[in-house]
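User: I'm new to structure prediction. If I give you an amino acid sequence, what do you actually give back? Let's try with this one:
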Amino acid sequence: MRALALKIQPDILRAIKRFFNDCVSGGDGKSIYDLITHEFTHYFDDAKIKELTKVRERVDKFFEKYRSWTGSSSYFVIQLRDEGLARFYEYKKKEFFLYDKKKIYDTKEYIHEYHGALLMVDTYECGFYMWYTIALAYLFSKDRDRFNEMKAYYTGKDFLFFAEGLRSIFSKNSIYIQNLSNNIILDILKMAKKWSHLKFLKEYKKACEILDVPKDQIIITIDEYNQMKKIDYDRWLSEIRGAGFPTKGLKSE
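Assistant: Good question. You get back a string of structure tokens that encode the predicted 3D arrangement of the chain. For your 253 residues, that looks like this:
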């Protein structure tokens, strides 16, 4: 009898390996439920991921040909969208989550250094922060009373309520913030299925404006993304010129 082979998608296989490696090394406390929830969220989002995978594939092919990460700005924002959304749903059972301002500062520094430094960014957690911000702005517009009842705390201190203003919450280096209800999370998940990485960025910008998020804690702005794309373009132009291809009609933006 011919043996049956189970075909496992590469991202699922990597996640399984990571899970068992974490079990051996002590890991980060994640359960098999967390792992499965995260990975299956990608399949809920499958249609948009397939569309965005075409962008990833163009970046990969260019890298193989020129050994350069030209185009990695799009790759980076897609990772924030995809992995952040999966983490957003993975965390749905958490009553509170840790908001780590240092992680955001580090990310902004990597964005300014760009290219190789982007590999250092925790796109899972930073992407989650972005989706949470979008969802929180959605709640703010949908149910102000419920928004005002939301709260946060940090070690040894009393609760801070959102009604008192988010500035006091965002001023803490690390603070535990209350998670959103399953209804809000599912509403965002349904909308996200139709959002490209660019729509995701625009909605994040809008959410930051609604909530008055401090500028130094906005993970990535549209202007920063456009600057990254310009660096990509200029690098690509330099590389094809260096390879002897004609560049008439092409110019740096």
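You can read the tokens as a compact description of the fold. Here is one thing that stands out. The chain has eleven helices and four strands.
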